[in-house]
Amino acid sequence: MRQSITVLTAALAGLTLSACSVTTGGNSDDTADAGVPATTDVVVTIPVPSTDAPSSTPTSTTEPVDVATTDDTSTTDGAPTTTDPPSAITVPVPVPTTSAPVNTDEFEAITATLPVDDDDRWTAWSTERCGLRAVVLNGPTEWGVIDNADGSATPEFAIWHHADGEWVRTDHSWLGDTTTSDTAAFAFSSAELIILDGLDEPVLVTSLSSADGPSATVRILDTNCNWWTRPVITPCGVVAAPQAVTPFPASVTIMMADAIDAPEWPCSVGDPWPIVWNEEFRMPTVDPGAQFCSDYVPTEVDDPMQAMALTTTACTRGDVITAAQSMLVDRGVAVDVDGEFGPGTLRAVMRFQRDNGLEVTGRLDPATWSLLRPAGE
Question: Among residues 210, 230, 250, which one ends one of the domains?
Answer without folding.
Answer: 230
